[in-house]
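Thread amino acids onto this structure.
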């Protein structure tokens, strides 16, 4: 059990049978009435973000999340197959469970799997990945005075806004948190 006064960003807690990670919190001490903690929580099972208010001093369950390194093997229809790097056990997740992550997953890529009491919740990607540009229009010379960008499609199907000097075949560093271009690799 953990006291809500000890909330920290990134802490995983169990509230009403669901597992949440704390995105943001604020301790409020009104002039009249009891103090409380206003928090923004992300549901790890479905990705929904909820705002909850707890009384100061209230205790809730702490969720112990396990992380293991796994390798992404291949896609088979709507199923995506992973292999545990230690035990070589294979398991699959659906496209619905990996909706955002599929923009960055390549075969043979190592990622961390998140599980809670044996239930696989999702995966953690590295903060950035290298992806190859497969389609982009050529940049127009002399059009760079304002830091212009163009659209580029990478090997996973993600569309990214990139500077005009990027060409097909270039390998880019892409931020997995927001899907934006960082630099050439």
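Threaded sequence (185 positions):
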């Amino acid at each position: 059990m953990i006291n809500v006064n000890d909330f920290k960003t990134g802490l995983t807690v169990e509230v009403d049978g669901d597992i949440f990670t704390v995105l943001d919190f604020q301790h409020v001490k009104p002039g009249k009435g009891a103090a409380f903690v206003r928090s923004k929580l992300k549901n790890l099972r479905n990705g929904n973000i909820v705002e909850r208010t707890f009384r100061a001093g209230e205790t809730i369950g702490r969720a112990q999340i396990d992380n293991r390194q796994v390798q992404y093997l291949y896609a088979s229809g709507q199923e995506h197959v992973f292999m545990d790097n230690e035990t070589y056990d294979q398991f699959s997740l659906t496209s619905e469970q990996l909706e955002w992550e599929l923009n960055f997953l390549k075969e043979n890529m190592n990622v961390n799997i998140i599980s809670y009491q044996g239930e696989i919740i999702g995966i953690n990607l590295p903060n950035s990945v290298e992806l190859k540009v497969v389609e982009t229009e050529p940049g127009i010379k002399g059009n760079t005075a304002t830091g212009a960008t163009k659209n580029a499609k990478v090997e996973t199907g993600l569309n990214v806004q990139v500077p005009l000097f990027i060409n097909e075949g270039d390998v880019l560093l892409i931020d997995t948190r927001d899907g934006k271009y960082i630099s050439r690799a």
